Write the structure tokens for this entry.
Amino acid sequence: MMRKWAAVALMLGVMAGCDDGEGGDAADMGMVQGEAPEAYTMICSSCHGAEGGGTTLGPDIRNPAEWGYGDHVVRNGRDEMDEFSSGMPAYADGIVAQDSLDAIWTWLGQAEKPGDGAGLFARFCANCHDVDGSGGRAEKTVIIDEATIRAIVRSGHGGDAFGNATQYMPAFDTDLITDAELDLIVEHIGTL
Ligand code: HEC
Ligand code: HEC
């Protein structure tokens, strides 16, 4: 793991020194998605994958329900998910400017959504509650009565306490998760 870290740190060091006008690297790195913002491809893709779907070094992040939350994680870094042996480094504005970050959230939010409950749960819920819904970094099971599940998905919890893993849950409106998709998620939770 230390060796991987050293490689990432080296890459970031090189990148920090780069001008941001270079677009050619994406093709060299074998990206299939041409429209990723350049800052994403250069800095985030090594851990989160070319399209944001995650790797062994970082989770699926195609779920930006609340940009303030994403901003908080990027600016402060974090190391709370047991699934990953290393954490997420913090990136200051000088490395990833705010407008680049906004473009990254917009792009991630455009990712095609899974059509089944398990896939939707993995995309929108598992980073905080674990794939089996048992608790995860939120330390709260989702396996409870249907009405409560539906209510909290729409309302969220904890306001903008983005740094508080056991309090903050984003509110998902019907643009993010449609009523039909919520039905699939609830059905999936019923099988856990
Ligand atoms: C060195 C690997 C690495 C790089 C590079 C990296 N991340 Fe992460 N990221 C992680 C890990 C690991 C986590 C999980 C953190 C934890 O354990 O709490 C994470 C978590 C996140 C989360 C929170 C996901 C959630 O559902 O809570 C977001 C958002 C995120 N990263 C965005 C980014 C963006 C945007 C970039 C590029 C500017 C980036 N990351 C670069 C490793 C990385
Ligand atoms: C960013 C992290 C995060 C994400 C993403 C997230 N949750 Fe949560 N969730 C939490 C936290 C933290 C709590 C605990 C809040 C509290 O104290 O009631 C919670 C609580 C819950 C509860 C328990 C409510 C209760 O009263 O016991 C359910 C059910 C739930 N979430 C379902 C979901 C579903 C379904 C999704 C995906 C659509 C989801 N959550 C996505 C963080 C998250």
